[in-house]
Write a structure and sequence with these properties.
With 241 residues, this protein is an alpha/beta fold. Helices cover 39% and strands 16% of the residues. A 6-stranded parallel beta sheet has the order 3-2-1-6-7-8. The protein has a two-stranded antiparallel ribbon with strand order 4-5. Its cofactor is Mg(2+).
Length: 241
């Protein structure tokens, strides 16, 4: 009996958006207007690439970025939840599917001692170039019209489950924990025995309830959370069953 927990990262594991938090490293902790206005919907990763160039040009080094990123607070109860999962890995496989990047997520999880909780992290690949600038690339290409150009979380989830089946691993239940609009596509992929756990008051919860009002509700169960301790309580019940 094994459960798959799928986590978003920004505003789910951490209580902020890692990509906007990095702006604290910029001169006067803000970006110039022309850079801010250069964002086009669906092309966030390219925009962040320009932000990283700007930081690099202004002498912001890797150490300063790392120090800044590791001050981001976790969401309420998340430290307890991740501690619980770390102690119960025989029941839970845990993955992250995020529109952040590998460098930020790695720094934050390692600084808090939680990197071993997660079996895999699917996010935009990032690295420091020879000039010391942080660079980021799109996670993959896909054909989903609903998702941003760089990442369809449904595709990631489906491919992961297929790969696990090839290895002989199947899951009793999938639990999807997220907050954003781009978490709706993978939630629509979940079956009736699975659970979507949208964060209270965030876009994902609103989109799921809108679907229910339009009489096309999601197939899975829905449990809303505001503290990750609520998620932990539910998982404790699953394990006892």
């Amino acid at each position: 009996m094994k459960f798959l927990l799928v986590f978003d990262f920004d505003h789910t594991i951490i209580d902020e958006n890692s990509d906007t938090w990095i702006v604290k490293c910029a001169p006067e902790k803000k970006l110039p207007n022309e850079l801010r206005n250069s964002y086009r919907p669906g092309h966030w990763t390219e925009y962040m690439g320009r932000v990283f160039v700007y930081l690099g040009e202004n002498g912001v080094k890797e150490d300063e970025m790392r120090r800044t990123m590791t001050t981001i607070p976790f969401t309420v109860g998340m430290v307890d939840l991740l501690g619980f999962l770390g102690e119960n890995k025989e029941f839970f496989d845990c993955i992250i599917v995020s529109d952040s990047n590998t460098v930020f997520i790695d720094w934050i999880l390692k600084a808090a001692g939680f990197h071993k909780v997660f079996d895999e992290v699917f996010t935009n690949p990032a690295a420091f170039s020879s000039t010391g600038y942080l660079t980021v690339q799109n996670f993959h290409a896909h054909h989903c019209a609903k998702c941003p150009k760089n990442l369809c979380k449904r595709k990631v989830l489906k491919e992961f489950i297929d790969k696990q089946l090839e290895r002989g691993v199947s899951y009793t239940q999938i639990v999807y924990i997220g907050d954003g609009g781009n978490d709706l596509c993978p939630v629509m992929f979940l079956k009736k025995d699975d659970i979507a756990m949208p964060r209270q008051g965030y876009t994902l919860e609103k989109k799921i309830s809108q679907l229910a009002q339009d009489l096309s509700p999601v197939e899975c169960s829905v449990l809303v959370w505001s503290s990750a301790r609520e998620i932990m309580s539910h998982l404790k019940v699953l394990v006892k069953e």
